[in-house]
Design goal:
alpha+beta; eight-stranded mixed sheet; 17 helices; 41% helix; elongated
C-alpha cells in the first residue's frame, strides 16, 4: 500500500495540548458566567434531520449546510430526471445534515421535551457546528459556539440579562468590546416606510453586509433585489445615521411615525437602553441601525459584539425569536439568546496576547526519576499532592537529568521535585523553582503548605 500524506479538510483544525488548555480556559470562563445566571446545560446530536435545518437560515444559509449522504445504496432509488434538480436530488440521497447552529436544534429539543421542561427554560450549550463556508481568517468550517437562551418569556429583562452576561464574559477575558444593538421590528418598519414591506428579508440581508462590502455594494445589491431608486434614496439617511443612542432613537422615531411595528421596536429599544443604563456595565454599547443579523427567525432585539482592538468580525451575536418553535408545532413560544464564537475569541486573545501567563500550565510539579527506590519514595507524596488538587506527574523513565529537566522546561512545569538518597534519608524533598532557579528543602509534611 502506498504511503498516504496525512491531511485534514480545509477549514478544520487539530488542537494540540497547549491550545486545548487555552480553549478550555475560554469554555470554563463562559460556562461559569452562564451558570452564575441560572442557565442549565444540554447537548443535542451532531446531525439533525434536514427537514429540521432547511429553510431556517434563509437561502444563503441552506447553501452552507453540510448534507450527509444516506447509508447503503442511496443512488439506486433516484430517478434520472432528479439529477437535473438539486433540491429533488438532495431529498432522495440525503435525509440528515450537520447542525448549522445550536438555536434551531434547541427549538426542536424544546418542542420534543415540552412536558418535562420548566418554563421559562434557561439553557446553555457548548458544542461544535459546521458550515460549508469559504475558509478564511476567523471563519472556519467547523467551530464551537457557546449559546445561552431563555425561552417561554417575552420580558425585556431577558435581553438585559444577555447584555450583562456578555459584559461579564468579556470583562473576565479582558477583551475590550462594543455591544451593537438593534431591533428587527425597527427594520420591518423601515422596509414598510420605504414602500417595500415584502422585501424585509432582502433588505436586512443586504444591509447586514455594510461593514464587509461598503455602502455602494449594498445599494447595488438592493437594486438587484428589486428596490427602486426612490426607496434606496429614503434608506440612505438611516444607513448613515450618526450621533448618540438617544439622538438615533429620536431621529428614527420621526422617520417611522406611520409604522406601528417600527414604533413598537423603538419602544422596546428605549426600554432596554433604560435597563442597561441602570446597570454598571464596563463594555460599551450602541444602537446600530445597519445591524440586521441575517437569520430569518429573529423578530425583536438583535445583538452583535465586536472586539475594539482586533481586526476580526463579530465574536458574539444573537437576538429575540418569537415563534421559532412554531415551525415544529409549538406556536407562541418566544425566546431570546446569544452565541459566543469560541474560535474567534481564541484568535482575539492570541492576537492581543491576553491569555493569562499561567493558563498554559497543565502540571504544577514534576518528580525527577532517579530509579526504583526513589520512585517508591515519591509515589505516595505525588498522591498527597493530587488529593489536594495540585497537579503533578512523575517522569516515567530513569533518564539523564538533562532530559528530564528539558521535558519539564518544554511543558512549562514551574516546579521540579528532587528526591535522592540524602532527601530520602532525611525524609525531605528538594523543590526547584524553574523560573527563578532557587531551590528549597522541605519536609514531607510541609510539602502541601509549600504549594
Amino acid at each position: 500500500m502506498a504511503v498516504q500524506k496525512p491531511s485534514i479538510p480545509r477549514g478544520m483544525r487539530d488542537f494540540g495540548a497547549n491550545e486545548m488548555i487555552k480553549r478550555n480556559y475560554i469554555f470554563d470562563t463562559i460556562r461559569s458566567v452562564f451558570q452564575l445566571y441560572g442557565y442549565q446545560a444540554i447537548e443535542t446530536p451532531t446531525m439533525e434531520n434536514l427537514s429540521t435545518l432547511m429553510g431556517k437560515y434563509g437561502e444563503e444559509g441552506d447553501k452552507l449546510l453540510f448534507k450527509v449522504l444516506n447509508s447503503g445504496n442511496y443512488i439506486e432509488k433516484v430517478n434520472e430526471e432528479n439529477f437535473a434538480d438539486f433540491k429533488k436530488l438532495t431529498t432522495q440521497i440525503s435525509e440528515k445534515g450537520l447542525r448549522y447552529d445550536l438555536t434551531v436544534p434547541f427549538a426542536r429539543y424544546v418542542v420534543m421535551n415540552r412536558n418535562e421542561l420548566t418554563f421559562p427554560f434557561k439553557r446553555y450549550q457548548i458544542q461544535p457546528v459546521w458550515r460549508a463556508d469559504k475558509p478564511q481568517k476567523g471563519r472556519y468550517r467547523e467551530f464551537y459556539q457557546c449559546d445561552v437562551d431563555v425561552i417561554g418569556s417575552n420580558s425585556l429583562i431577558n435581553e438585559l440579562e444577555l447584555v450583562n452576561i456578555t459584559d461579564s464574559i468579556f470583562t473576565k477575558l479582558n477583551i475590550n468590546v462594543i455591544i451593537k444593538i438593534n431591533n428587527r421590528k425597527v427594520l420591518a418598519g423601515i422596509a414598510e416606510t420605504i414602500g417595500f414591506p415584502e422585501k424585509i428579508i432582502d433588505i436586512t440581508v443586504a444591509i447586514d453586509k455594510l461593514d464587509k462590502i461598503g455602502l455602494q455594494k449594498v445599494n447595488e445589491e438592493l437594486v438587484q433585489k428589486g428596490l427602486d431608486e426612490n426607496a434606496i434614496s429614503k434608506l440612505q439617511p438611516i444607513l448613515e445615521l450618526r450621533g448618540s443612542n438617544f439622538d438615533k432613537l429620536n431621529t428614527i422615531k420621526n422617520l417611522l411615525v406611520d409604522s406601528a411595528v417600527g414604533l413598537k421596536g423603538i419602544e422596546e429599544l428605549q426600554t432596554l437602553f433604560n435597563y442597561i443604563d441602570s446597570q454598571e456595565i464596563k463594555s460599551g454599547y450602541e444602537l446600530d441601525l445597519t445591524l440586521a443579523r441575517g437569520l430569518n427567525y429573529y423578530t425583536g432585539a438583535i445583538f452583535e459584539v465586536k472586539a475594539k482592538d482586533a481586526q476580526i468580525g463579530s465574536i458574539s451575536g444573537g437576538g429575540r425569536y418569537d415563534d421559532l418553535t412554531g415551525i415544529f408545532g409549538m406556536p407562541d413560544m418566544s425566546g431570546v439568546g446569544i452565541s459566543f464564537g469560541a474560535d474567534r475569541i481564541y484568535d482575539v486573545l492570541t492576537e492581543l496576547n491576553l491569555f493569562p501567563e499561567n493558563v498554559a500550565i497543565s502540571t504544577k510539579a514534576m518528580f525527577i526519576n532517579f530509579g526504583e527506590k526513589e520512585i517508591n519514595y515519591c509515589l505516595p507524596i505525588a498522591k498527597i499532592l493530587r488529593n489536594r488538587g495540585i497537579s503533578s506527574e512523575i517522569y516515567p523513565d530513569s533518564a539523564k537529568l538533562k532530559k528530564q529537566f528539558s521535558y519539564a522546561d518544554a511543558k512549562k512545569i514551574p516546579y521540579v521535585i528532587i528526591a535522592g538518597e540524602q532527601e530520602i534519608e532525611n525524609k525531605t524533598l528538594k523543590i526547584k523553582d524553574m523560573i527563578s532557579g532557587t531551590e528549597t528543602i522541605v519536609s514531607i509534611t510541609e510539602i502541601e503548605n509549600f504549594f
